[in-house]
Design brief:
- One of its GO terms (molecular function) is O-acetyl-ADP-ribose deacetylase activity.
- This is O-acetyl-ADP-ribose deacetylase.
- The protein is of the alpha/beta class.
- It has a single domain, classed as Leucine Aminopeptidase, subunit E, domain 1, CATH 3.40.220.10.
- Helix content is 40%, strand content 19%.
- A six-stranded mixed beta sheet has the order 1-6-5-2-4-3, sandwiched between helices.
- Strand 5, helix 4 and strand 6 form a beta-alpha-beta unit.
- The structure holds adenosine-5'-diphosphate.
């Protein structure tokens, strides 16, 4: 089941929330900063043991002081005009998160709007890629994930997801 909410992803009691991290996995601004603040310093300590993450890939940690049990950190592409495999790398983020969630037998996952903040990915295209990728994954792969929430922070993303989910 796919759903959309507007609000702060750090408040959600799901099996895993997804972090739009950077390749260092050592924290940053936007949703990454909010997740580290809410989870507490133990999250950064675990992230230090992971030695970073490549763009388009994902890694799982505990959720510590978050209501979510786990955080799946993924690194979206920085938008450089669209000719540097940005769409393919963004799709890979959604797919890798779902693969890792499936490996850990997780049921409920909440995604932020990866790459659409500081990384500058056009929001409408990012929304289309997110929905297509999770729908394709859910229909083609055997997965434990039965509930996917798109946690939109800004009004523009929230409207886009509501519109596109209705179709
Ligand atoms: P990126 O570097 O991947 O663009 P950002 O954190 O800058 O990551 O932005 C990704 C998305 O996360 C943006 O749509 C931004 O509005 C949103 N965001 C920021 N803070 C939160 C939060 N606490 N919960 C959910 N989404 C958030």
């Amino acid at each position: 089941m796919l759903s959309v909410i507007q609000g702060d992803i750090t408040k959600l009691s799901v099996d895993a929330i997804v972090n739009a991290a950077n390749t260092s996995l050592l924290g940053g601004g936007g949703v990454d900063g909010a997740i580290h603040r809410a989870a507490g310093p133990e999250l950064l300590a675990e992230c230090r043991t992971l030695h970073g993450c490549q763009t388009g890939d994902a890694k799982l940690t505990g959720g510590y002081r978050l209501p979510a049990r786990f955080v799946i950190h993924t690194v979206g592409p920085v938008w450089h005009g669209g000719k540097n495999r940005e769409p393919e790398l963004l799709a890979s983020c959604y797919r890798r998160v779902l693969e890792i969630a499936t490996q850990h037998n997780l049921n409920s996952i909440a995604f932020p709007n990866i790459s659409t903040g500081i990384y500058g990915f056009p929001k409408e295209l990012a929304c289309t890629i997110a929905l297509e990728t999770v729908r394709t994954f859910s229909s083609q792969q055997k997965t434990s994930v039965s509930e996917i929430i798109f946690a939109c922070f800004d009004e523009e993303n929230y409207r886009l997801y509501q519109q596109k989910l209705a179709n």
